[in-house]
Amino acid sequence: MIFRDIYCSLQKGSDCSVIRKNRPLPNQIVVTLPMAHSTFERSSLINAPASEVRAWHFCAGAFKKLSPPWEKATVVESPGELKDGARAVIEVRIGPIKQRWVAVHEISDDGFIDRQEEGPFAFWEHHHRFLPTSDDTCRLVDSIRYRLPLGFLGKIFGGPLVRRKLNRMFAYRHEVTKQALEGANGNHEDAV
After folding, report:
1. What is the pLDDT at residue 79?
2. How confident is the model at residue 26 (pLDDT cuts 50, 70, 90)?
3. Shortest CA distance to 71 belongs to which of 44, 91, 41, 48?
4. Does 149 have pLDDT greater than 80?
5. Residue 4, Cα to own-chain centre: how many angstroms?
6. Alpha-carbon gap, residue 30 to 18, rounded angstroms
7. Which of 14-28, 39-53, 90-104 is predicted least confidently?
8. Distance between CA atoms of residues 58 and 94, nearest Å
9. Which of 5, 65, 89, 161 is the most exposed place for a label (fewest CB within 10 A)?
């Protein structure tokens, strides 16, 4: 894990200051804080009940339906039934490199969470929420907290690329969900 070192002077009346050296000065202690997480959120109104949108996301094969064709992701191990502790193993390509991504699921009152156990990010937590707005509509919300590898360098050099990829991917996923659940004239035949 990459950390920033913040040194705070213990001398009476002095302010805390950030010192960029390898070790603290005399009369100072080191407070180590983890690098801040980046966040991403996409929200869409879906003209279908929250229970149907949730059921569609919980069905086997939902990940495949939601995977954009330009993303090189292969399901190696499907979680089967989506439940607490269910694991998904996905092989992703990052340029010419294949990487294994293992996600563990947790069911929440308003949806589910997948957390990266192993994969390309230093940290990844994705909360899928299905929030009723009326009996016949809901808000689909994907909230992600993540941290890129290589700390500050990863954020500087990879941050804009990851943000663009997330925007494009979740715009696609939300559109696929809308089409599947709203369909032509509100037909939900592809829903579950």
Report:
1. 81
2. low
3. 91
4. yes
5. 23
6. 10
7. 14-28
8. 27
9. 161
Considering the entire predicted model, what is its pTM?
Answer: 0.75
Q: Give me the long-range contacts of 156-162 (CB less than 8 A, separation at least 24).
A: 159/38, 162/38
In the numeric block, the tokens 């937590």 are attached to: 125
- The lowest-confidence range among 64-68, 75-79, 114-118, 153-157 is 153-157
Domains in the chain with CATH codes? 1-34 (no CATH), 36-183 (3.30.530.20)
CA proximity to 43, closest of 177, 139, 157: 139
Which two three-digit tokens encode residue 153? 């360098």
Residue 10 has a pLDDT of 35
CA distance 171 to 88: 22
Cα–Cα distance measured from residue 60 to residue 75, given in angstroms and rounded to the nearest whole number: 12
